Amino acid sequence: MKNLPENEWMKMLEGQLRNYSEQPDEAVWDAIAQSVQPQRDAAVWKWLEYSGSVAAALLTIFLMVNEGERSEVVSDVTNIAEIKTAAEQTEEVKEQSEKSFSANSSKSGFDAQQNEQVYATQKNKRQRLLKDVLLSDNGASSTSSASLVSPIEKSDNSYAAKFEKSNITLDTLPIHHQEAIKTDTVVAPIKIKDEEKETAKEEKEKDRDKRKPKRKPLTLYAQLKPSLSYYAVQPFGSDEVVISGFSSSAVLSSDRFGFAGEVGLQRKLTKKFDYILGLSFYKQNQTLRYQTVNNASHQVVNSSTDPFTYITIPQHSEHVVQYDMTNVGLTAGLLYELKKSGLVHRIGLSGTYQQGFHKAKETSTYINKASRYGFYNVLYRIEYPIRGKLTLYAQPTFTRSFYIEEKLADPFSLKLSRAGIGIGVLIDF
Question: Which residues of 326-352 are buried (b: 16+ CB within 10 A; e: fewer)?
């Protein structure tokens, strides 16, 4: 009896009843869904609104940055076109609005509000179109056959002329803008700024400046140089005159004194080498004395001890040469920089060619005016910068002649040498 199907079914039914709990019906679920759905929609819309605001802000910043980088064509033509056409457009819109208002005065307030919105939309559209046309990068296609040629003769500063240079073609503008530009005769400056073109031009100029060799500084120099003169005597061997002696002054005698002057230009040749080119001057007043024996002219005397003995005595004589000279010429040479630490040390070699200008007396055996000389100079210079572009220097110099063409009636020729210390100044330009 215990295993009968009826008993098993009853037990199962009792178990189900013990575990039974009430479940809401479909109406309850619909009410719950209606109460929850608005909150979900509000959250979604709130998220979409926030995302749209962020996207709009980013888009505005992007457009502002691009607008700042664009090359602008800002012209008074825009102002003139706007001034001339704004009034016409305003009048037309007002007339249309008044007609529309009078025709639809019997309509509801909603229709009036809709008309105002249409008017505002059309006005904003026209303003955007005008701005896009006049302030675009390229204005319009440069391949258009129409051009901005005014029927009146215009100057280079006229609006039409400036507008033509901006590559904006006339046929791309609205009709009222074309008429305004065609009839414009006002002359006023138009500012056209193109940052890209200006930047490219500046870069091109910089490249040209880099390729162009830098101008090397030019220096003016001037110096005075006291010196002492020395001579090497070379007698002629083809005459009958024998030089028996030469009276020489002391090494530091004032009779050897002379002074030289030089002024010229100095400029860099390389990093270490400079070249100089200038005018030179030299003056001295010296007296040379020498003794000669003339074999062709002698004296015969009788010996005092033997009346039959005769003695031949050569004729001795002393001569004086007034060796005065005033020479002017050119000097050119090279300087090499040895060291530059506070003081600048240089060595140099130069050549000098001079012409005599001193007018001698008629009795003088030396005529400086008819004489020419060539010298080479070995020098050592020490430069001391004072301030700014001014530099002082001391320059010991040794000078020796390598070419002499002088008019000297005495039986010898001279090889000239001089030693001196020059004091000079350098002025940079």
Answer: bbebebebebebeeeeeebebebebeb
**What mean pLDDT do residues 68-83 have?**
49
For the chain, the domain total comes to: 2
Nearest to 405 by CA among 351, 357, 362, 368: 368
Cα–Cα dist 373/405, whole Å: 6
Domain with 396, as residue range(s), is: 218-428
* 11 domain residue, yes or no: no
**157 phi/psi in degrees, rounded to 5:** -100, 0
Confidence (pTM): 0.49
Closest by Cα among 224, 152, 278 to 395: 224
Are 152 and 227 members of one domain? no
* Residue 108 and residue 206 share a domain: yes
Backbone angles phi, psi at 251, to 5 degrees: -60, -40
> Which pLDDT value is given to residue 146?
38
Tokens of 264: 């010229």
Query: In this predicted structure, what is the pLDDT of residue 143?
Result: 40
Return d(Cα 276, Cα 350) in angstroms, integer: 8
* Best mean pLDDT range from 65-79, 193-207, 307-321, 333-347: 333-347
Find the range with the poorest average confidence among 98-107, 238-247, 351-360, 370-379.
Answer: 98-107
Do 372 and 327 contact (CB within 8 A), yes or no?
Answer: no
Alpha helices in 221-333 (DSSP H): none
Are 258 and 326 found together in one domain? yes
Please report which confidence band the pLDDT of residue 108 belongs to, taking 50, 70 and 90 as the band edges. very low
| 183: alpha, beta or left? (left if phi > 0; alpha if psi -120 to 50) | alpha
